[in-house]
Amino acid sequence: MRRGFLAAREDLVKRLSELVVSRHQKLYGVVNEILEQALRVYGFGKGLDEVVDEYEVLMTGRGAGYVLIAQGLLYPLVEKAYLERGERLTKAWYDNGVWLGNYLSAKFSDGGFRVLERVLRALLWGASEFRLSESEGGMSLRYISPTSPLSYTTLLASFLEGVMSAYGQATVKKEVSRGVVIIDFGPFGKSNIEGVGGSGGGS
Fold first, then answer.
1. Distance of alpha carbon 195 from the chain centroid
2. Is 141 helix (H, G, I), strand (E, B) or coil?
3. Among 34, 54, 93, 98, whose CB has the most other CB atoms within 10 angstroms?
């Protein structure tokens, strides 16, 4: 098979060559493997940076102890547990959110809210919409998932509040209904102003 030549940045070629040597591989084979996988990614309609980012997020979730479970199995369990001990469960989800927020802020110390949004969007892949954006004096979070029951949505809202608290953000206004979470946050020091929907169950 004939060989071709490609132009690339000198610093990248040097780093790749050093990596190949350290792994006892051949530069020719590694470059061809990179090109083959790049073509696969582009065939999926995605960019290399997007795929690498998603992989990093999934590995982050795995490292944080999260597992995949089918919605059809998860939601009935959550519904039953929420009806029996809603308040304790809500606090547990909040505390877990705080832990994850601390974990992410330590792992991605330079990423800020941009990286946080990317990670949460990937972990909440069942959502039809997830946004975390800057608003006046704070942050605004929006989550929409038509298939989520109210029990799960309420617990998720508490979980997200916990995550944001680890980033120094307190809830200013909250709206929760089946499959919809809209929360405005502000820096700690501002008291909660308004909350709508998503009341806790029995304890």
1. 24
2. strand
3. 93
